[in-house]
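Hey everyone, long-time lurker, first post.

I ran two proteins through the pipeline my lab uses and got sequence/structure pairs for each. Pasting them in order. The first:
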Amino acid sequence: MSNAENRGASRVRRPFITLLAASALSVTGNILSMLAVPWFVLDTTGSAGLTGLAAFATTFPVVVSAAFGGTIVDWMGFRAASVVSDLMSGLIVLAIPVLFVTTGLGYPALLLLLFVRWLAATPGETARKAMLPDLSALGGVRIERATAAYDGVSRGATMVAAPVAGVLILWLGPSALLLFDAITFLLSAALIGLGVPRTGHERARRGSSGYVSDLRDGLTFLWRDRLQMSATTMIVVTNMLDTGVTQVLLALYAREVTGDPRAFGLLTGALGAGAVAGTIVYGAAGERLPRRLTYGCCFLLAGVPRILVLALGAPFPVALGVTALSGFAAGAINPILGVLQFGRIPVRLRARVLSSITAAAYAGMPVGGLLAGSLTELTGLTFTLAAFACVYLLASIPPFVFRAWRELDRQQAAST
C-alpha cells in the first residue's frame, strides 16, 4: 500500500479511533468518580451509612436513565447526545469540589448532584455504542474487530484507572480526583464534537410519533426478538451473580479461606487481565470463529469454573489460574453481543433498544449482593459458591439448546 493510500485509510478510520479515545476517557472518568466519591463522603461526613447512601445515588439513576433515556438519544442523534451527556457530566462533577471549597456543599446537595450526574452520563454511553457500527463501516473495520476494540478499550481503561485513582487519592485527595474526573468528560465531549461526523443514518432519522410511543416501539422490538431476549436474560442473571461474587463472596473467600486480603485483589485483577487478553485475541481472530458456539463456550467458561474452583477449596494458585482463564473466555462475550445487537436492531431503534438492554442488565445487580450475603449467612460460604456455580451453569445453556440461537450463525453467514 502506498503512502497516499495509508494516509487515506488513516483518515477514514480517524472518527472510529476518536470514538474509542472518547470512550476510554469517559470510562476513566466513571472509574475515578466511583473511587473518589466514597472517599470524599467519608472525609466530609465520617459516616459509613451516608457513604452507602451516596453509592445508591450513583447506581439507581443508571437504571432509570438507561430505561427511559434511549428514546431521547434517538431523537437527538448519537453524536449530539454523546456531547451533551459528557458536557453535563463534566460540569456537574466539577461543581462538587468547587462548591465544597467555596460556598460549601451540604450532603443533600451532594446526593442530588451525584444523582443528576449519573442520570446524565448513561445516555452518553448509549450514544457512543450506537455510533460504533456506522463509524467502523466508515473506517473499513469489520464489526467483530470494532466491537472487540470498543470493549477492550473499556476494560483497559478500567484496569488502568482504578489503581491510578487510588494513588491520586493518597497524593492529592478525593477533591482533586473529582477535578480530573470532570476534565475527562469535557475532553470526551470535545473529541466527539470535533472529531466525529454525523452519520448518514442519523441524518435520515424519521420523525417522532411521541415519547411514549417511541419508547414502546423499542421495548416491543426487544420483547419480540427471541434471540435478543434470551441473550438479555442470560446477562441479567449472570450480572446478578457476578455482583454477588465480586462484592461479597470473593471478600469472604479471601478472609475465611486464604486469610489474606490481598487474595481479593489478586483474583479481581486476574479476572480483569484475562478479559483484556481475551478481548484482544477475539478482535484478531473472532471473524473466523463460529459465533454461537464461541459465545456459548465462552459464557460457560467465564462463570462456572472460577466460582466452582473456590467452592471446591482448590489451592489459591490454582484458583488464581482458573480465574484468569475464565476472564480470558469472558473477553469474547461483549464483542459477540455487540455484533448480535448491531446486526438485528434497526438504526432508528438502536439507542432505545440498547438502553433497555442496559437497564435490564443493571437492574438485577443490587440483588446479587443481598442474595450472596443472605445465603452465606444461612448456609455458609461453600454452599453459596456451589449454588452460584449451578445457577451460572443453567444460565449458560440457551446457546446450546434454544433454536433461536441458530440465527446467530445465520447472521454470521449472511455477513461473510
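...and the second, right after it:
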Amino acid sequence: MKPKSLRADVLAGLTTSFALVPECIAFALVAHLNPLMGLYGAFIICTLTALFGGRPGMVSGAAGSMAVVIVALVVQHGVQYLLATVLLGGLIMVAFGLLRLGKLVRMVPHPVMLGFVNGLAIIIALAQLEHFRNGEAWLGGTPLYLMLGLVALTMAIVYLLPRLTRAVPPALAAILGVGLAVWLLGLPTRTLGDMAHIAGGLPVPAVPDVPWNLETLAIVAPYAVLMALVGLLETLLTLNLTDEITESRGYPDRECAALGAANLVSGLFGGMGGCAMIGQTMINLSSGGRGRLSGVVAGMMVLLFVLFLSPLIERIPLAALVGVMFVVAQQTFAWASLRVLDKVPLNDALVIVAVTIVTVFTDLATAVLCGIVIAALNFAWQQARELYADTHREADGSKLYRLHGTLFFASTTPFLNQFDPAGDPPQVTLDCRHLSFVDYSAIAALKTLRERYAKVGKHLRVLHLSERCRQLLKRAGVQHE
C-alpha cells in the first residue's frame, strides 16, 4: 500500500469512528439495549467486514434499520433472545452469500436505488433532530442558539476547508476543531457523554442464555429472517452505491458471507446485529477511505474509545457530529433525481417517490419490495402492450398470423384477442419466429387457441418455434405441429 493511501485510509477511518459512536449508541437506546452492545457490535462488524468483505471502503456497524426490527423482541423476551436472533440472522446471511444470491441485487431497478438513497438521506437528517431535545422537551433560548451556531460552524468547516487544503479530511477537522473550541471557551452545550457513558472492558464470549429448543426457534426465527433481509438489502444497495462512487467493482456474495460471519461473532460476544451504514460509508469515502484499512481503523478506534479514550470522546460536542451528519444527508440525497422527475416515464417517477416515502415511514425491506413490485408490474404491462400481429392471406386461401413480442401471463389476453376463429378460413398458420414463450401461462394460451379453432372445425398450424419454446411445450404435453 502506498504511503499516501495508507495515510488517507487511517485519517478516513478515524473520522468515521467519531460518526459511528453516537449512531450506534442511539440505535442501541432505540432497541432498549445497553449502549455498549451497540459499540461492541460496531467494533466487531466494522472490523470483520472490512477485513474479509467484498467491498473495501464500505463501513458496516450496528445499524438503525436493524435496531427497529428487534425492538418488540427485546421488550417481550429480553436481551438473550436478541443475541440468539443475531446468531440465526448471521447464519441466514452466510447461507445467502454461500448460495451466491448476492447477484439478486441486479433485480433492483435504478429508480428503486434512487428512492432508497433519498429515503435514507432523509432518515439520517431526521435522526439528528433528536439531538435538539433535552429529555422530552425541545431546546430553546440560549442552548438552542448555541447548538444551531455550532452546527452551522461545523458545516461551514466541512464545506469550506477543501478549498484551502485537502491534507486533512474536512469532517475530522470540523469535529476536532469545534470540540476544541467548546472546551477552550467552556461553552455549555451537550456532549457525547450526555447520551451515555461508553467506558467498558473487552467483550466477553458467551452463548446466549436461552433454551435451545423449537419453542425458542419459533420466537426468534421471524425476527432473524426479517433482520437478515433488511441487513442484506441495505448492504447490497450500499455496495452498489459505493461501486458507483469509487468506479470500481465489489463482490456482493463475499460481502454477504462476511457480514453473516461478523454478525455471528457479534452475537457470541454480546453485540448487536448490524449491516452496512450508508451515512458512515459516505463519510469514509468523502474523507478518502478506499481500502480495507479505513474500515479496520474505524472499528478498532471504537474499541479504543470504550477501553481507554472514553473521557476524551465523551467531550465531543453533539453539535459537531450533528453538523457532519447533516452534510452527509445533503451529499447522500440524489438531488439529480428531483430534476428528472418530469423527464423520466411517469412510472419511474412514481417508483422514486414511493420508495423514498415508504423508506422514511416504514422500513427499507418494505420500501424496496414495493418499488420492485411497482417496477415489475409496469414492465409486465409495457411488455404486454408491445405484443402485436401481422396477418395476410396466402395464395391457397389460408390465413397467416405472424406474432411479435413476448407471450407470458400479462399478454395472454392480448394474444388471444389477435385471432378470429369464427371468421378465419379452415386453415390457419401461426408463425412464432418473432414470438417468445416465457411461462406456463403462454403454454396455456396456445392450448386455448388451438381448442378454439378445433371447436369450430378449423386447423391451427404453429411454425418456427424456438428450441426453448419447443421444450416448454413438449414438457407440458402440448402439440405444436
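Reply from user beta_strand_b:
Welcome! Quick read of the second one: The first helix runs from residue 3 to 30. The radius of gyration is 29 Å.
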